[in-house]
């Protein structure tokens, strides 16, 4: 097949990249691919450790999509075997491996979410349980013989844990070898991962050499910082935006990120050019953030959903100071039997609609003046106040807005 010129491919692929081992080898592989018409096999592996694929996962996935768009073959490794071990990369403590039942359940949802970024219909999808299920004890011993304890403990995460006296379990040492063996099985030309994955990717190069294969290119992408602006985006820290989250939720969460994250997010999560990004982030921060949030929503929910979400946001947080409710308000049903003479304690109403996690939090929000209801945005006088609840009543707590339906 015909590929774009190598220089054009490199201009696309190198944008946003953190480290490539090595760039010269990547260029040579691209030149050979261009000359022969044979696409590169570009590997990305993901362990089904939870139900939500989040924006942090999409940084290497978006790069994989770029390789696809340039005509190369995306090879998705679903870590049905490695998830049972747990990747130690970048971790201060051992990660609990998952049961086979948990892995199978999670794996079913992952591919659907990944399809929002990568064209899985044109990708080669391989669960690594496909080959590790056939491994016998002798095969595993042979694999373990490809590395040493000295080399394993040289990695930064293990060194830190040794100094801190934190346990390192032997099964964790198996993970990079398993990930590396995936590259041998699928004959990867390039492997994508985050910067904390470099050690594992380099193990893949070594195993390919030992198996008589040309070593893969280790192509790492920066780690996306989460909503807090400090730590890596992750499910365990609850600082993430999931690909399956509603447009309104994705938009609202993006609007709450620190201003200092915007350049990084634009570069890693959108297709805007460096010149565009530079111009956007030097403008008004709130408008820049709205554009970023709109780009994210448009990618995962479409342009129409993004336009509706922006319009609702502008109505709700109008610069003129005149606040309006958005056109699209989520509804919550509460039993009419919970009302007494058509009314309910404001504290109970907040808890029943789950605007707050507990009645204690509801009381605090009332005292802070954060809760209001109805067209006049009435605020309860105190924590003992009651609210006349009619079907369709709009209740608000901070940026949360719900329409109450009586069931």
UniProtKB/TrEMBL annotation:
One of the Pfam families matching this protein, by short name: tRNA-synt_1b
Q: Which UniProt keywords apply?
A: Aminoacyl-tRNA synthetase, ATP-binding, Ligase, Nucleotide-binding, Protein biosynthesis
Question: What's a single GO MF annotation on this record?
Answer: ATP binding
Q: Which domain of life is it from?
A: Bacteria
Q: Name one GO biological process term.
A: tyrosyl-tRNA aminoacylation
Q: What is its EC number?
A: 6.1.1.1
Instruction: Note whether Ligase occurs among the keywords.
Output: yes
Does the UniProt entry include the keyword Protein biosynthesis? yes
Q: So what does this thing catalyse?
A: tRNA(Tyr) + L-tyrosine + ATP = L-tyrosyl-tRNA(Tyr) + AMP + diphosphate + H(+)
Q: Name one GO cellular component term.
A: cytosol
Family (UniProt): Belongs to the class-I aminoacyl-tRNA synthetase family.
**Official protein name in the record:** Tyrosine--tRNA ligase
Q: Which organism is it from?
A: Frigoriglobus tundricola
